[in-house]
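Hi W., the zinc ion complex you wanted:
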Amino acid sequence: MATPFIATILGAPRIGPNRELKRAIEGYWAGRLRRSELEQAAEDLRRNTLTSLAAAGLDSVPVNTFSYYDQVLDTAVLLGALPARVLSISDSLDRYFAAARGTADVPPLEMTKWFDTNYHYIVPEIAPDTVFTLHPEKVLAEFAEARTLGVSARPVLIGPVTFLALSKAVDGGVPPIERIDELVPLYSELLTRLADAGAEWVQIDEPVLVTDQLNDATELAHRVYTEIAGGTRRPAIVVATYFGGLDGALVALARTPVEAIALDLVAGDVQAVRSIAELADKLVVAGVVDGRNVWRTNLENALDTLTALQGSVGAVAVSTSCSTMHVPYALDAESGLDDSLRTWLAFGDEKVFEVATLAAALRDGRECVAAEIDASNSAVASRAGDPRLHVDAVRARLSAVVTEGAARSPASERRRAQDARLNLPPLPTTTIGSYPQTPDIRNARAALRSGAVTAEEYQQQMRDEITKVIRLQEDIGLDVLVHGEPERNDMVQYFAEQLDGFFATENGWVQSYGTRCVRPPILFGDVVRRRPMTVEWSTFAQSLTDKPVKGMLTGPVTILAWSFVRDDQPLADTANQIALAIRDETKDLQGAGIAIIQVDEPALRELLPLRAKEQGSYLEWAVGAFRLATSGVDDATQIHTHLCYSEFGEVIGAIADLDADVTSIEAARSHMEVLEDLNSVGFSNSVGPGVYDIHSPRVPSTEEMITALREAMNAIPAERLWVNPDCGLKTRRTDEVTAALQNMVAAAQAVRP
Ligand code: GLN
Ligand code: ZN
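Structure:
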């Protein structure tokens, strides 16, 4: 076997510690940067990453984890699997960006979530006439670049099983996975090219093996890797899996000639690994440092896991559980952390240090890292003993409410009370919450941060904005208005900044997709709402109009999904604590005269566990938390929810169980199919299927929205139907929004009984 390594990570972030890549790419798109300047910026980032990983003590460093947009799109390029519509663009980088984001003439490929993370990948399209061909230039170039720097580099590829499982069939093609035998020879050829280039190791990522997405994953894994590893001129292979345990596929892989298997031992179980005799001659790359959450590793526990493994497998290397692209770069960019909190955390750089420390302990004995182990132990003790993690009042209240039950009256009774109070026309029109985040709004927020305006001035600017948005909605003739959310930088961070138990980072950026980055807050402690968070804005908006204004809140599951969440108690308990804070907010909104409150749960589908056997209990607590958040109000207060960004198939029953009075849901792109699905689970509350897609700047015509509404009325009786766009409007321009909503209101009037 090739020389085993002992310290690595499965992949690194690429956006740059200060989002340099985002700036460079967006500059290139806008024509401000030349191609050569973009390439130079990218090369600088890659070089810094490689040299700092090597300097930190990794003896095998991942390469080819850089990307101008997305690693799955890179793999489509590698395998010659771009759709015909972009192939006419001759320049390869422009073609790549066209596939990712479209051009005036070419629609982009779809984007969807990477397993259960918040990263979105580009979904490859496989057509009957797709001919797979090998284009290894990127990986070869990045490998050569690393060699020039003297770094011991390990090229990383997405494996053929995962690539095809994540692709979608188009133009009537077969399910892509059925074409696996066409890819295997390409991977074999690629491995030969990498061996010729001097690669000793290659990492092939197969995270799909930790899901239940394929019926025959075990058989497939065995067959594909027996073949790929059967080649004679190739680097040693690590098959990397992450985001869960492998179950049966682990034995299957162990029975192939691959030299190493990378396992997520944060999500998966080490005992299952120890019982597999076939691992006796394999290198196990043990993912004991959490690559996707921000907590400092308990080094003592991790070392116990590693030493337990050492006895039963061929060799052990220390690693992160997955690529560190899911966590921010480094803690030292955070000046606002208090001293204790700082010691509990590990971002990307700190995780690399932990890996190197654990590897040193394996190699030279625990004594030589005694100081690091002590520091880790004190951090664990400090975290466990911190009063902010155990607020008795919250815990007592929570158990009281949970025992009391979080039930509302039957939907029909609520409906009667709400109809009498609200007096809305049939097919009421509304929007999802946000209005365009104009440059004025963003400038005002920046000015507040920098101290250029006072809090009072900022508040006045937001009030002016709300006033504008209310007037606009009245002019358009909408029935249920919103305040427009100008004061919110982000629908989760806005609440995190006001709740105890959260820390909002200054520079904790992680890539969400392409050049879009997000800053998930860190939920470290018990959640306490100190004071009302939204009431002032909502009551101000309501004071401007006789139409009802919806209060606008983010739901507990979505707040969890878009934060880094404490790992010292079940997610369900944390969700319920957030739910309690939202519940208090709904009561305050109601007390202030707000008649309709929307609690958004766009991330309900995102947290769904990858393994089928865990999904039922997730949905139970997720629905429970939503109901806890929304059941504190009177019958006459109407609860709305909003869902988007996903195929709802697997969670459709849960959507019905949320029992919101009105559910607005993304449907424009799926042609209202979701309504039939809701009917099939007996859903009988009101629903607002999105009648147009807000993700495009195109203004939909009245006629097409009439068609959409007629389609909807075939599935749902008019008395249960609402009319709205399919998501919030914050990314659009005011002129687009105004025209689209005018047409939408006209469409509703045209079909009203
Ligand atoms: N109320 C939010 C908005 O309109 C909902 C956003 C979302 O669904 N992601 O912006
Ligand atoms: Zn939405």
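The mean pLDDT is 96.

W.
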